[in-house]
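Most newcomers find our protein records easier to grasp once they have seen one. Nothing more is needed to start thinking about how sequence determines fold. Here is such a record, shown just as it appears in the course material:
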Amino acid sequence: MKANGNADRIIGTTRRPLAMRAAVLGCALLALGACSSIRETRGFVNDPVLVRSIQPGIDNRRSVEGTLGRPTFESQYGDPTWYYISSVTGRRPFVRPRIRDHSVLKVEFDQAGNVATVDRSGVEEVVYLQPDGDETPTLGRERSFLEDLFGNIGQVGGVGPGAGPGGPGGP
């Protein structure tokens, strides 16, 4: 029996390092998975089959709405135009999102409500703006903190025509 007890001890000691290695490997895989990219879809979900089914001269507003749904936005001026905007971004933890795919579907209607044109554009027409500095330039003069703090003393509620007890116009 002592031999079996020693064998159990030997097997038990070899199992511990294996279990420890498996736990460490599992934690490493979980940590590695946390660094993967996060994919986010925003706006219209672009289905190429549905988009290709919209045909000028055949479809109208009702059929386009039934096929693609309500537009992302509609034109306010000029010819009636519906815009469907889709954007897919990818970001890694602690990093700004980057645009992976961007598409704009422009469906233009004639005065009768029938589809006149269907145009598609992509990320090549996206304009990236870089703000100039931390401040927005404005007209006027630069005021200090103290001028902002004490600048209106004596300006508001001063004695003038119609000002007195009871407010403007008298008692």
About this structure: Helices lie at 2-34, 48-52, 61-68, 145-150. Residues 37-123 form a domain with the Beta-lactamase Inhibitory Protein; Chain:B, domain 1 fold (CATH 3.30.1450).
